[in-house]
Write a structure and sequence with these properties.
Chain lengths: 882, 111
C-alpha cells in the first residue's frame, strides 16, 4: 500500500490511461474515476476503495480495449490482434495439409527440446525433492591434481570442519558406502546402506516417520549398534510392523537396535535402505590421509552459499598449513546438494542432447520457413495488390508473424505430448537396479517448469521460422509482382532465401548424423563387439562375505571352494569359476607392482595393473585363451609357490622381449613367479580396452568379495533359482545378489551409452528426414517456378535428360555447399562429441566423410522426382500457362 | 425537420433529461448517480461514456472541459449540456410517447 491514500492504485490508473489510448474522453474518464474513488474511500474504507478502483479500471480498460474503440477510431491493437488471429486461423484451416505438416514438424522439434529440458531439470538442476533442499550443501576436498573433480574427505578433516564451521554450516554429516547383508525372518538379502553422522537426516531436512534418527551419542564407538530403516525395507521384510522399532535385527551378522523408520520414498543417497551411525573410536585418532567420506551439511539460517564457501576456504587453508603432509595444496569446495551429487559425466551428455535437440528444432524451423515462403509466393500477388492499395508493409509483416505464432501455438499441445512420451519411454526402459544410482530419475515428468519451457520454445520457434517470410513480405516488390504473371511474384531474393534454408538444413543435419553414428558405433562396439571372453551362456552373481561370520582368509577359501563345487553340480551347468571381480562388473581391483630385474621406481611412481584373483578353472569357464606357459591348477594352493598369469598387454608392456613367462613381479610384500600369459579382455568399455592385468590363483590370495561365473549349456537365466539354492546349501545366511547373465551385465554397464545412442539416433534420424523433406520441397518448388523456362528450353531443343541433369545439378550445388559447411561444423564439434561419448568413440575424419557421401546420395535421390517432373514438362502447356 | 429527425433510445432520453436536471453540474459521476437513484438503473461506467459519446456524435449533447482539479489528479471535468437539436429530439420523443399514452390511462394506471 502506498502511504498516500488519496491516490487510487497507481499501476491500475496508468494501465487504464494506456488502455484508453486516444479515446476522446480519456482524461476526464480517468479523472471521473479518481473522483469517484475518493467518494468510495470516504464512504467505505481505503482498502475497499482500492480494490473497487482496480475492478472499475479493469472493466473500463477491457471495454475500451476490445469493444468500444473501433466504433470511433479504427484498428486498436488488441482488437486488430483478435481479428488477425481469426484471419490466420481461417486461412490455415483452408490448407489443412500444410498446417498439419507444420504443426507436426514444429511439435517434434519443440518436443525434443522440452524432453531434454525435462531430463536436465530433473536430473541435474533439482534431483532431490527434499523440503528446502537448496539449503542442503555438499562439501568436497579439492586438490590441484584432481582439477574440478570432487574428492572425498578424510575423517580427521571432517571432524575439524564440523567443529569449526558450526554456525555457518550446521548438521554437517559424513557418509560412507555400506554393502549390507540382512538376515532375518526371510531369506538373506543384500541391500545398499550408508554409515552416516548424527546430523545426516537434519542436513537433508527429512526426519524419521517412526522413532528417531541419530543423536550425538550414537557416534561413539560401542554405542553405535543402532540402525534406521527405509519405509520400503520395513514393509518388505518386517511387514510394516511398528513394533520393530525398539527391537534388534541381524545386520551383517551382528545385532543392531532399530531406532527409526524413514518416511515413504526417502532413500538418500542413491536409494539407500539402511543407515547406521558412522562412529569414531575415541581412543584412536582418525586418519587424515585416507579419504573415504562424502560430507553434506545444511546452511545455518540466514547464511548463504557464498558465506559457507568463504568460511570453508579459511578452515581449509588453516588445515593445509597445520597438516602439510596430508593437506598440502588441498582446499574445500561447497556445492548445493543437487550440484554436488550430480554425476559429472551427465553434463557433457546432456549438453550434446540439448545441442542435438536445438539442431533438430532449427532444421524443423527451416523447413517450416520454407513452407511459409512457398505460401507467401502463392500469395505474392494478393500481397502486392494490398500494398499497392495502401496497406502498410508493417501490417503485412504483422499478419505473417501472427500466422507463425498461431502455428507455434497450435503445435505446443502436441509437443507436450511428444515430450511426455519421450520421458515415459526413457523411464520405462531404465532397469530399476540402475535407476537407484540416478537421483531424480523418478521425477522426470511433465510439470509446470517443463510447460513454461515449452511455451518459451514455442515463442522462439515462431520467431525463427516466422521472421524470414515476414521480412520477405516487407521487401516485396510491388510493381514487379503486379506486372508479372503472379507465379514469379517472388523476387530472386526469396529464392535465394529458400536455397539458403536448404543449405542450412543440410549443414545442421550432417554434424548431428555424425554424432548419432558415433554414439551408435560406440555402444555397438561395447555391447556386441569383441570382449576377449565369451559372454554368451554365462550366469554371474556376487557375494560379499561379512566380517562377522567370515573373519579369516581361510573361511573365504573354504566358502568359495564349496560354492564352486555346489554350482558345478547344478544340472545344466558345465563349469563354475570364482573371481574377485568379473569383467564388465561395476568395480575393479588394482595393485602396484615391481618387476624383478628391472630398475626400481620410487614407491609413489610404481606402475599399477588390474589385479584379478581367480579360481583354477576361470580361464576355461570364461573362455579366455592362454597364449603361453600354463594355466592355474588345484596344485597352486596356499603354501605352494606363489605364481601368477599376466595378460598379453601386461606381458608386452613389462617384458617387451617376450620373456614374461619365468619373470617375477612383486605384489605387496610377495614375489610372484609368472607361469603363463593369457589373452586380453575388455573389463571396462570406458577405460583402456587392453588394461594390463595380473591374475593370481584364488587359493593363494583369497578375497572376501567373491563373484561367481557359471557356464551353462542352456539359457542361463533359467538356472538362476538353482544357482541361488546351490549357494544356500553352502551357507543359508549368505545372500547372493546381482544374479544375471554376462550379457545383462554388459548391457547394464553400457546402459548410459545405449540411451545416448538411442536418443542421438532418434534426433539424427529426425534431422535426416526433415532435411531431405526440405530439399525435396524446395526442388519441387523451384521446378514449378521454372516450368516456363523449362518449356522454352525444351522447345528450343533441350532433351529431357538435359533438363533432368540441370535440375539435379541445382540440387547438387545446394547439397554440396550444405555438406561443406556441415563437415566443418562436424569436425569442430568432434572433441565435444568425444567427451560426451566418454571415449567409446573417436571422432576421426572417416565417419563425417562417409556420412557426407551418404547424405549427398540421398539428397540427390530426393531431388530426382522433381527433376523427372521437370523433364516431363510439355512445352506447349508450359508456354500457354500464362 | 423530417430530414434531421433523431430517434432517442430509452437510455438516451433518460441521460438527456438528467443532464437537463443537473444543469451546470452535469458531468459523468453525478449523471451516473442520478441515473441510479432516479431510474434505479446501475450502468457500467464504460457504457455510460459510450452513450454520452454517442449522444455527442448525434448532436444532442455538447461538452466543455472545466478547470483542472487537484482531486482529479489535475484533470478537468467534462460538463455536458443539451443542444437545441437534443431538446428537439426530446420534445419529439415526448410527443410520440404522450400520443401513444393518450386514452390508455384508465387501462394502465393502477386503480
Amino acid at each position: 500500500m502506498t502511504a498516500d491514500h488519496s491516490h487510487p492504485p497507481q499501476l491500475a490508473e496508468r494501465l487504464l490511461t494506456h488502455a484508453l489510448g486516444a479515446a476522446v474522453y480519456r482524461d476526464d474518464i480517468v479523472g471521473d474515476l479518481r473522483e469517484a474513488y475518493r467518494a468510495v474511500a470516504g464512504r467505505r474504507s481505503v482498502h475497499y476503495a482500492r480494490w473497487w478502483y482496480r475492478a472499475q479500471a479493469l472493466r473500463l480498460g477491457a471495454r475500451y480495449a476490445v469493444h468500444l474503440r473501433p466504433h470511433f477510431e479504427r484498428g486498436h491493437t488488441m482488437d486488430r490482434l483478435a481479428m488477425d488471429v481469426r484471419y490466420a486461423l481461417r486461412s490455415l484451416a483452408k490448407r489443412p495439409l500444410m498446417t498439419l505438416t507444420v504443426v507436426v514438424t514444429v511439435a517434434l522439434g519443440i518436443g525434443a527440446n522440452a524432453a531434454v529440458f525435462g531430463m536436465i531439470d530433473a536430473l541435474v538442476v533439482r534431483p532431490y525433492g527434499f523440503p528446502d533442499v537448496d539449503r542442503a550443501v555438499l562439501l568436497a576436498e579439492t586438490s590441484p591434481k584432481s582439477g574440478a573433480r570432487r574428492e572425498t574427505v578424510s575423517p580427521a578433516n571432517f571432524l575439524d570442519w564440523r567443529r569449526e564451521a558450526a554456525g555457518v554450516i550446521d548438521h554437517m554429516a559424513a557418509m560412507r558406502w555400506w554393502d549390507v547383508n540382512l538376515v532375518g525372518r526371510d531369506q538373506p538379502e543384500r541391500t545398499l546402506g550408508f554409515f552416516v553422522s548424527p546430523g545426516f537426516f537434519t542436513a537433508v531436512g527429512v526426519q524419521a516417520a517412526l522413532g528417531r534418527g541419530f543423536v550425538a551419542a550414537d557416534e561413539i564407538r560401542g554405542q553405535d549398534r543402532v540402525v534406521v530403516l527405509s519405509d520400503g525395507l520395513w514393509r518388505r521384510r518386517f511387514g510394516g510392523d511398528p513394533a520393530i522399532v525398539g527391537q534388534s535385527i541381524l545386520v551383517d551378522g551382528a545385532p543392531r537396535l532399530v531406532v527409526g523408520i524413514m518416511p515413504r520414498g526417502f532413500g538418500f543417497p542413491m536409494t539407500a535402505e539402511v543407515w547406521a551411525p558412522l562412529s569414531f573410536d575415541a581412543a584412536a585418532p582418525p586418519t587424515r590421509t585416507g579419504r573415504s567420506m562424502t560430507v553434506i551439511g545444511r546452511l545455518a539460517p540466514g547464511r548463504t552459499l557464498e558465506e559457507a564457501q568463504a568460511t570453508m576456504s579459511v578452515i581449509g587453508g588453516r588445515l593445509a598449513r597445520d597438516y602439510p603432509v596430508a593437506n598440502r595444496d588441498r582446499g574445500v569446495r561447497v556445492y548445493t546438494l543437487g550440484q554436488g551429487m550430480t554425476d559429472a559425466a551427465l553434463v557433457p551428455i546432456f549438453s550434446m542432447w540439448q545441442a542435438a535437440a536445438i539442431f533438430v528444432l532449427l532444421i524443423a524451423c527451416a523447413n517450416v520457413a520454407n513452407l511459409l515462403l512457398a505460401r507467401g509466393a502463392e500469395r505474392g500477388r494478393e500481397i502486392a495488390i494490398r500494398l499497392a492499395l495502401g496497406s502498410s508493409r508493417g501490417r503485412v509483416v504483422r499478419e505473417s508473424l501472427i500466422e507463425s505464432s498461431v502455428l507455434a501455438t497450435l503445435s505446443i499441445p502436441l509437443s507436450i505430448v511428444c515430450a511426455w512420451v519421450f520421458l515415459r519411454v526413457m523411464r520405462v526402459f531404465m532397469p530399476a537396479r540402475i535407476v537407484r544410482f540416478i537421483a531424480g530419475w523418478e521425477h522426470m515428468t511433465v510439470d509446470g517448469r517443463l510447460l513454461a519451457a515449452t511455451l518459451a520454445l514455442g515463442v522462439f520457434a515462431a520467431i525463427v521460422f516466422g521472421l524470414l517470410p515476414a521480412l520477405q513480405f516487407a521487401r516485396g516488390d510491388v510493381s514487379g509482382a503486379l506486372k508479372s504473371d503472379g507465379r514469379t511474384g517472388v523476387g530472386p531474393g526469396r529464392q535465394r532465401t529458400r536455397r539458403a534454408l536448404v543449405v542450412a538444413e543440410i549443414a545442421l543435419a550432417l554434424p548431428l548424423l555424425v554424432a548419432a553414428t558415433l554414439s551408435v558405433q560406440g555402444v555397438a562396439r561395447s555391447l556386441i563387439g569383441w570382449q576377449g571372453y565369451d559372454p554368451d551362456g554365462v550366469l554371474a552373481m556376487k557375494t560379499v562375505l561379512p566380517a562377522g561370520r567370515y573373519a579369516t582368509p581361510d573361511t573365504w577359501r573354504r566358502f568359495t571352494q564349496s560354492a564352486i563345487e555346489q554350482l558345478a553340480a547344478v544340472p545344466g551347468v558345465s563349469g563354475a569359476a570364482a573371481a574377485n571381480v568379473l569383467p564388465s562388473s561395476d568395480s575393479n581391483a588394482g595393485r602396484t607392482i615391481e618387476i624383478a630385474g628391472q630398475p626400481q621406481a620410487d614407491a609413489s611412481q610404481r606402475p599399477a595393473v588390474d589385479y584379478r584373483v581367480v579360481s583354477a578353472n576361470y580361464f576355461e569357464v570364461m573362455r579366455v585363451p592362454l597364449l603361453a606357459g600354463r594355466g592355474f591348477s588345484d596344485a597352486d594352493r596356499e603354501g605352494a609357490d606363489a605364481i601368477g598369469i599376466v595378460s598379453a598387454s601386461m606381458a608386452k608392456k613389462f617384458w617387451p622381449h617376450g620373456d614374461a613367462v619365468g619373470g617375477s613381479v612383486k605384489v605387496g610384500n610377495e614375489w610372484v613367479r609368472i607361469v603363463g600369459t593369457c589373452a586380453d579382455l575388455v573389463h571396462d568399455v570406458f577405460d583402456a580396452v587392453n588394461a594390463p592385468t595380473l591374475y593370481r590363483p584364488f587359493a593363494q590370495a583369497p578375497t572376501s568379495d567373491v563373484s561367481f561365473a557359471v557356464r551353462t549349456a542352456i539359457d542361463p537365466m533359467t538356472l538362476a533359482g538353482d544357482v541361488r539354492r546351490a549357494i544356500d546349501r553352502v551357507d543359508a545366511q549368505q545372500p547372493t545378489f546381482d544374479v544375471m547373465t554376462m550379457r545383462q551385465m554388459l548391457s547394464d554397464r553400457t546402459i548410459g551409452m545405449q540411451y545416448v545412442a538411442g536418443v542421438m539416433g532418434l534426433f539424427g534420424g529426425l534431422a535426416l528426414v526433415l532435411a531431405l523433406v526440405g530439399l525435396y520441397a524446395v526442388m519441387s518448388y523451384l521446378v514449378a517456378q521454372r516450368v516456363r523456362e523449362i518449356g522454352v528450353r525444351i522447345a528450343l531443343g533441350a532433351t529431357p535428360a538435359d533438363v533432368t541433369r540441370l535440375t539435379i545439378a541445382q540440387a547438387a550445388r545446394l547439397t554440396a555447399i550444405g555438406l561443406a559447411i556441415g563437415f566443418v561444423v562436424a569436425l569442430a564439434l568432434g572433441r565435444f562429441i568425444e567427451a560426451a561419448l566418454l571415449g567409446t568413440a573417436t571422432a576421426d575424419v572417416k565417419v563425417p566423410i562417409l556420412l557426407a557421401l551418404t547424405l549427398a546420395v540421398t539428397a540427390l535421390a530426393s531431388s530426382y522426382l522433381p527433376a523427372r517432373r521437370a523433364a516431363a514438362v510439355d512445352p506447349m502447356v508450359a508456354l500457354r500457362s500464362d | 425537420m423530417t430530414g434531421s429527425e433523431i430517434y432517442l433510445g430509452e437510455l438516451e432520453q433518460q441521460l438527456l433529461l438528467i443532464v437537463l436536471r443537473l444543469g451546470d453540474g452535469a458531468y459523468a459521476n453525478p449523471i451516473r448517480d442520478m441515473l441510479e437513484s432516479a431510474a434505479g438503473r446501475e450502468l457500467a461506467r464504460g457504457a455510460l461514456y459510450t452513450a454520452l459519446e454517442r449522444l455527442e456524435v448525434k448532436g444532442c449533447l455538447r461538452s466543455i472541459l472545466g478547470d483542472p482539479l487537484p482531486e482529479r489528479g489535475g484533470r478537468p471535468r467534462r460538463y455536458f449540456t443539451v443542444t437545441p437539436a437534443g431538446l428537439r429530439a426530446l420534445r419529439q420523443s415526448r410527443r410520440v410517447w404522450l400520443g401513444l399514452w393518450k386514452g390508455l390511462e384508465s387501462k394502465l394506471e393502477p386503480s
